[in-house]
Q: What sequence folds into this?
């Protein structure tokens, strides 16, 4: 990120004066938080006010939502299956194998469904957005857009943010279903659970808040993923290398922010309910 | 690929929701068993003879007059149960998950489809049992603790 860049540039001097380096990187970090904040506000304002570019919006819905389904589905089914096996082993240590369906369902809907879907999106979507917008920046297409009096925030950032916020919960709903199905497959095929009992336990146990809180998390994660992609792409500097750096930064920063906000949101939900 | 994932998810969802209702294997016959206590027995639970699964519990209702739980058992038609068989609710583990195990009797005639198992034994309330061991109501232990001075309410019970 910009902070890391700043420290690298002043590396020789920082050996002589570590205090100055510390101050410099702190300032750079604060400056980045501020510029991401301003970027986010501008992006949200562009996403929520008309005129909308409906064609762009639709294209982003398909790119972020539909084409992420395979990778999200695969992640979810293997995670559910592995989770089931692990919980079966753990439960077996105190004769509680029978609560496995409930714990798998809870773990998937509250935590793993949203987080893993968002991480997959961070790898797939955030990188793609950063590369696309970064390449447009490098080839001065964004400046050309402005010359043609098309607001790039409206045309590029807004639709992506909207698609991220709206599509990630839908993907998470699919991931929840497939994840539970993965656990169910292992439980019935490998561990000799009764299929009907497994599903009944899951349905009876889950409360709507378990699923809804996961979907709220997913919306926040979706916003983070799209925002990081847009921000790093939009601010890419220095041609092809800059685009590459923007892609890396987009993925890494969205992953870190996903985990951080996941903990914050979980704390919030735990105290709220 | 996206379509495949969506179809899988939709398929599993509809399957899950359909399992909520009664699902009876074609050809199975149904018998009734009345229990004093059904415990955690739920529709879909297994019915076994000698540990081998021979059917499922398809429905559990309450008989309003006698307050007994009536379980409909859907049994594989190749298994003919003698009319004096015993049905018993057994828990799979300490924390729930119950199934019905049937101990076959020795009578010459079989239970007819739609018939009833007369000998049943309901679920055992494990936590009730544990509770009655660690906090006996009446009996010698209760008498002994009543001899002790009164501040039981603020102190943990001595029997822990």
A:
């Amino acid at each position: 990120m910009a902070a890391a860049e700043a420290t690298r540039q002043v590396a020789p001097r920082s050996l002589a004066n570590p205090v100055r380096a510390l101050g410099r990187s702190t300032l750079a970090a604060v400056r980045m938080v501020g510029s991401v904040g301003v970027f986010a506000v501008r992006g949200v304002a562009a996403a929520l006010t008309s005129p909308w570019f409906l064609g762009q919006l639709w294209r982003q819905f398909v790119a972020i939502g539909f084409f992420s389904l395979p990778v999200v589905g695969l992640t979810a089914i293997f995670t559910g299956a592995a989770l089931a096996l692990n919980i079966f082993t753990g439960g077996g240590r105190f004769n509680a194998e029978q609560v496995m369906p409930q714990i798998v369902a809870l773990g998937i809907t509250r935590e793993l469904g949203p987080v893993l879907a968002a991480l997959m999106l961070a790898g797939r979507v955030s990188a793609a957005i950063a590369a696309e917008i970064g390449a447009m920046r490098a080839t001065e297409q964004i400046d050309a857009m402005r010359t043609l009096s098309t607001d790039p925030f409206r045309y590029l950032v807004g639709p992506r943010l909207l698609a991220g916020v709206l599509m990630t919960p839908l993907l998470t709903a699919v991931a929840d279903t497939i994840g539970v199905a993965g656990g169910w497959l292992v439980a019935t095929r490998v561990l000799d659970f009764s299929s009907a009992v497994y599903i009944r336990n899951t349905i009876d146990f889950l409360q709507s808040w378990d699923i809804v809180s996961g979907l709220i998390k997913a919306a926040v994660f979706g916003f983070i993923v799209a925002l990081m992609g847009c921000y790093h792409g939009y601010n890419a500097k220095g041609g092809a290398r800059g685009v590459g750096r923007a892609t890396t930064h987009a993925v890494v920063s969205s992953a870190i922010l996903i985990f951080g906000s996941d903990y914050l949101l979980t704390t919030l939900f735990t105290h709220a309910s | 690929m996206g379509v495949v994932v969506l179809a899988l998810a939709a398929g599993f969802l509809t399957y899950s929701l359909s399992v909520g209702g009664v699902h009876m294997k074609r050809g199975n016959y149904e018998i009734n068993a009345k229990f004093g206590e059904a415990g955690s027995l739920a529709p879909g639970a297994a019915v076994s003879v000698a540990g081998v699964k021979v059917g499922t519990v398809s429905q559990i209702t309450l008989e309003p007059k006698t307050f007994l739980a009536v379980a409909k058992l859907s049994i594989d038609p190749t298994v003919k149960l003698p009319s004096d068989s015993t049905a018993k609710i057994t828990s799979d583990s300490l924390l729930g998950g119950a199934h019905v195990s049937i101990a076959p009797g020795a009578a010459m005639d079989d239970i007819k489809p739609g018939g009833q198992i007369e000998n049943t034994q309901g679920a055992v309330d494990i936590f009730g049992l544990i509770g009655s061991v660690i906090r006996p109501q009446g009996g010698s232990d209760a008498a002994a603790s009543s001899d002790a001075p009164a501040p039981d309410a603020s102190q943990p019970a001595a029997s822990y």
